[in-house]
Task: structure prediction
Amino acid sequence: MPWQRSIRLASTLGAILLVSACAGNDRKEAQTADEVATTGAQSTRPEEVDPTGSASGRVVFDANWDIYVAKADGSGLNRLTTSPAREYDPSWSPDRSKIAYRRQPGDDEGEAEIYVMNADGSGKRNLTRNPGQDHSPAWSPDGTKIAFASTRGHQELLPSIWVMNADGSNPTRVTSIFGEYPAWSRDGTRIAFDVNTDIEQNIGDGAPADFDVFVVNADGSGLRRLTDAPGEDQGPSWSPDGTKIVFQSNRGGGERFSRLWLMNADGSSQRRLTDQGGFRPTWLRDGSRILFSGSGIFTIKPDGSALTKLPLRHPGEVGFADWAE
Result:
């Protein structure tokens, strides 16, 4: 199911590593729908979940390997992709006119490419056209570039962070270490991303963790590790003012599913935001709420209050979601 995907990095280092990495570069969410339904936000008990909330705008999301868009009130559901390929991991352009996404012909993630389409589903085209795996597109704040993860040029078939022009031209490697799921700071100067620290050998500090959040300048300089707690810290997203980063984590000892955590942009003051299971958080542009996926699509305020499940009639389990106001 899409929301149970693992983002452990695929590798040809051996069958054992391949299994443990789940061969997918996809989000690992081992929670069940019951677990999500029976837990509440840290400062919001389940009965306090707001059935309407204050959310407006549109949401793009994937479900059952296709991409959909709908208004936040649940109306206007529209399926944008219909091919037999797996199409998921959507990301709105800043002007909301286009959607970048991952298209994978079959089970082999190594054949994944980044496509872009108009917001109504028309004009689909391949941006990467590369024999390696390309995934997790993220638009720069000015809409001129797309950061993404790619295995191109890697003997190990593990991705690192790249940036290309929005038309697919001039792909440039940004990180020397492996990484995926980039997220731009709102001023476009920095990129936060995931690193599998069990596999990456060039980090240097050796802190025990499966995944951690790192940040790098957009030109590749200034690499810095922000999290080092045992567990899987993934899916960073910058607040609009650039002072905070929200991310998902299963830290806490034996956790089987991720919750949302919040930290300062320098990695300090890390605290759990939700008790509810959730993944792939992203901020609304005004900073008032955070959108995330779980047993559905939810929003929550940055202080952990006003947990809201959006009334979307999605066809199957929800994967990744992004917000357009």
In short: The longest strand covers residues 86-92. The helical segments are 15-20, 33-37.
